């Protein structure tokens, strides 16, 4: 089935659609910005990019276009465990020929996931001096 026909059938009604406060969002896998639009759709597009958190680093999943009727064989996942810059460079090189229009959104998601994976800084309590300060 063509991707245009799939988009026409699923744009108004699908299980991932979230309609709130006058905007339409989508929770589908492969949708980098979670917007309900043809460009970012993970259901309708033949080539999709999904960036998700991994235990160490980020996982980038690309959909193969010619996998036939084998849904398990359609996904090609790669995990990047380096820092933010090295991961971003690898993702940029990966998407340069696959989907260059999604490069900016994928890099933004890689940076946010790497930033959120860092442990929070623990601040030491301030030393208190004097009798009245301890109360």
Automatic annotation (TrEMBL):
<dbReference type="GO" id="GO:0006412">
    <property type="term" value="P:translation"/>
</dbReference>
<dbReference type="Pfam" id="PF01778">
    <property type="entry name" value="Ribosomal_L28e"/>
</dbReference>
<feature type="domain" description="Ribosomal eL28/Mak16">
    <location>
        <begin position="5"/>
        <end position="116"/>
    </location>
</feature>
<dbReference type="GO" id="GO:0005840">
    <property type="term" value="C:ribosome"/>
</dbReference>
<dbReference type="GO" id="GO:0003735">
    <property type="term" value="F:structural constituent of ribosome"/>
</dbReference>
<comment type="similarity">
    <text>Belongs to the eukaryotic ribosomal protein eL28 family.</text>
</comment>
<keyword id="KW-0689">Ribosomal protein</keyword>
<dbReference type="InterPro" id="IPR002672">
    <property type="entry name" value="Ribosomal_eL28"/>
</dbReference>
<keyword id="KW-0687">Ribonucleoprotein</keyword>
<dbReference type="InterPro" id="IPR029004">
    <property type="entry name" value="Ribosomal_eL28/Mak16"/>
</dbReference>
<dbReference type="GO" id="GO:1990904">
    <property type="term" value="C:ribonucleoprotein complex"/>
</dbReference>
<protein>
    <submittedName>
        <fullName>60S ribosomal protein L28</fullName>
    </submittedName>
</protein>
